[in-house]
């Protein structure tokens, strides 16, 4: 028995030493924020405001005298996600987009507050800075969840709501009891997760994630993979996104208190969030309409911006 215990102890020490060596040689370091900003500068340049101790990046594109749209991106993305849609809508709309804190060119929040309310307030701060009083609101994934919460909290500002594969629907707690479940919860919510996430973000992981987000994997170009990979590794960004992922899931619910006319858009081949949720969201919002776009994945506004633009123009006509 003692021999077995000694053997197990040695095996554990060897395993820990191997893990330490691997962590010392394989980790992906932070990128230089100034270099990333110069490399991925957006057309027309960007603007910055200070909000709650963090710098928020936003930009304006399109027709200055046209009806305004505020665009909110998804987790891990940036204002770059909207460039294909801007090309479709720029002649008919004033387009305002922003990077959420710890995304794109925006800095992490010093207080680590990435709650839904904090993101709504960040979007509202940009809307005020841009002089928006009433506008169409477009949100994708995480930005979709923020968008419908914004519309519910500030109905006088939102003239039309577009939810593209929005996050936020509460799911049943299917976790099984026992040691394995406790280990899984520790892995997700433990401090070790942040420590590892700040050090380990291999490019292949970003590439596979992006390929899994689109209907046609060929759309996950090397250039797009590099942009996501380099942006997420800016100082503090990886930590912030894990902090967001660890936030209480009790905040999730359906948007039954939204008053704005709404279109829910979903890719029929979305492998991240099931397309069936489109009808669930639409049923929760009075008068909302669900649109399923066959063959598209989780990024319809990048995969087929013309089809998304048609829905935006249809709802916003005359507003």
What brief labels describe this structure?
about 40% helix; alpha/beta
Could you explain the architecture of this structure?
- The protein is α/β, with parallel strands linked by helices and 319 residues long.
- Helix content is 42%, strand content 15%.
- It is built from 13 helices and eight strands.
- The chain has helices at residues 2-25, 33-39, 83-89, 116-129, 142-153, 179-189, 191-197, 203-211, 222-232, 237-245, 277-284, 300-303, 305-316, and strands spanning 47-51, 54-62, 68-72, 94-98, 135-140, 158-164, 262-267, 289-293.
- Strands 1-2-4-3-5-6-7-8 form an eight-stranded mixed β-sheet, sandwiched between helices.
- Helix 11 (277-284) links the parallel strand 7 and strand 8 (289-293).
- It starts with a helix and ends with a helix.
- Mean pLDDT is 85; it is low at 15-25 and 170-189.
